[in-house]
């Protein structure tokens, strides 16, 4: 049995955390694992942890995997540094976490994809020809939506970095939708309990890049149609969460203006600094594994002078009862 030790985190890597003093020790079996909590609340719960001590050169054992999933359910976001994983190792680890991975709907053939792998989403800033994405490109405008707080209806996302660190830094920011829900006044919770939200990726794209995405292409609309989800859900550890994102367009039965007012009030509530931390990408092999059902995330906006940011994502399809949202007859 190995001890899961806890250490403090530096201000550079998680600059917006409100992490307090560390306390307590968790036990993990099957490896020399060390977990560093990132945001620790007064109630003793934690959001995010940096985990070390995994031998990524071989498949993760079932025992360690079980402990990691339990840690994930509790913490919502796990960060691993310097894993040494390549595309195949990235996909293989993800396949241990769920039998069905999402196939990238924007994958139009190996010759039209920089990574040539339909289970990987190329979410970096590099064009097919190797050049850095420019402000005139559709990819640039699409990326602007990733800088808004969002989540998607999948179980897990795992983002792995490749290549050199981005000159000037590169971050992914995470917000805890569990503690944010828990801290709402009881009368607000009652008002939100039965609401259903229409999520539309192209709504957030239009918010972030109105010149381009007010009229998405038919192929884009077909790849990502709207979905309907309950606003208040239960996360994997049984705690209630607010399930919302910049994709959230309408409260079912409400008008656009009053829907957007409520949705953005709640997004601002969830993204107060006390619920947020920022992961800096330090180098190739850094990997973050988050649970889309109990967090939101966002990237930084691209800048015209940024260097290559080569991050690639795998996604595990949600296999839970809420995965496909609210059927039409129940809305
Ligand atoms: Fe994202």
UniProtKB/TrEMBL annotation:
Span of domain TauD/TfdA-like: 45-315
Region spans: Disordered: 1-22
Molecular function, one GO term: dioxygenase activity
Highest taxon, organism lineage: Eukaryota
Polar residues composition bias: residue spans: 1-10
Entry keywords, A to Z: Dioxygenase, Iron, Metal-binding, Oxidoreductase
Gene3D superfamilies named in the record: Clavaminate synthase-like
Family (UniProt): Belongs to the TfdA dioxygenase family.
Protein name: TauD/TfdA-like domain-containing protein
Organism: Apiotrichum porosum
């Amino acid at each position: 049995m190995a001890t899961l030790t806890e250490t403090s985190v530096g201000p550079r890597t998680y600059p917006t955390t409100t992490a307090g003093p560390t306390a307590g020790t968790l036990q993990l079996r099957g490896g020399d694992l060390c977990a560093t909590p990132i945001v620790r609340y007064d109630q003793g719960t934690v959001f995010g942890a940096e985990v070390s001590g995994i031998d990524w050169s071989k498949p993760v054992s079932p025992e360690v995997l079980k402990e990691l999933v339990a840690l994930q359910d509790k913490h919502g976001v796990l960060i691993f540094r310097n894993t040494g994983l390549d595309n195949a190792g990235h996909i293989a680890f993800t396949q241990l976490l769920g039998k069905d991975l999402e196939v990238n709907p924007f994958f139009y053939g190996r010759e039209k994809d920089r990574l040539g792998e339909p289970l990987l989403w190329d979410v970096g800033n590099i064009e097919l020809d190797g050049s850095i994405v420019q402000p005139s490109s559709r990819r640039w405008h699409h990326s602007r939506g990733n800088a808004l707080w969002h989540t998607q209806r999948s179980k897990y996302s795992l983002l792995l970095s490749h290549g050199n660190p981005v000159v000037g830094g590169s971050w992914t920011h995470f917000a805890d939708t569990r503690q944010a829900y828990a801290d709402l006044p009881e009368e607000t919770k009652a008002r939100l309990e039965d609401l259903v939200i229409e999520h539309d990726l192209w709504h957030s794209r239009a918010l972030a890049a109105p010149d381009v995405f007010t009229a998405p292409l038919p192929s884009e609309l077909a790849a990502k149609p709207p979905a309907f989800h309950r606003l208040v859900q239960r996360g994997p550890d049984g705690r209630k969460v607010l399930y919302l994102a910049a994709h959230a367009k309408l409260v079912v039965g409400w008008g656009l203006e009053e829907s957007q007012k409520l949705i953005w009030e709640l997004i601002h509530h969830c993204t107060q600094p006390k619920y947020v931390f920022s992961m800096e990408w330090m180098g190739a092999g850094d990997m973050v594994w988050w649970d889309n059902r109990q967090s939101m995330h966002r990237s930084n906006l691209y800048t015209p002078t940024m260097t290559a940011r080569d991050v690639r994502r795998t996604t595990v399809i949600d296999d839970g009862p809420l995965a496909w949202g609210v059927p039409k007859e129940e809305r």
